[in-house]
Amino acid sequence: MGSNVEKPEFWESSFTEKQEMWGFKPSxxxxxxxxxxxxxxxxxxxxxxxxxxxNAQIFKENEIEVTGIEISKTAIEMARKHYGGDIVIHxxxxxxxxxxxxQYDGIFCYALIHLLDRVERNKLIRDCYDQLLDGGYMIFxxxxxxxxxxxxxxxxxxxxxEIFEGINMFFYDTDSIFNEFGEFGLFEVIxxxxxxxxxxxxxxxx
Length: 206
Description:
The protein is of the alpha/beta class. About 30% of the residues lie in helices and about 30% in strands.
């Protein structure tokens, strides 16, 4: 999943185990996004929550310049170890965006935004949209209410539950997608199954 919210203390110490679980193969969402970005001649992208880089390499291999944001120093070190040091990775939380004044023609945010609260989600969407060039695209992968974990754990607020200690998750449906992304050039929503049922949300800056 994405990795740019505040983590429980165990997170850094268990990051290697999580990396082994996720592996180095890009997510299905990353592959689909790469295909779309290539078809639209996207050349420069931002990845909030880049993690240790497994979803970044596929863009680099297709001559797309990648900049990332990541809160975990361990993840950044792993990204540089496995994928080289030519990716600029800003160290910090996505809730503190922007980290630079650059404009991007593509933004890809994988399995991260649903870990934020409503105010943080709205800020992240706005911050990403503001860093898009006119005509640029931002693509988010979010967890669906069809996930088996929906309604499990401690109730936090509507459609939001504490699934693990310190990890709250918001579950999306088409209504909440429209409510949060509708004013930001939303033009397509795709259902996709990976480790969980997700939505792939596509927006274009008009």
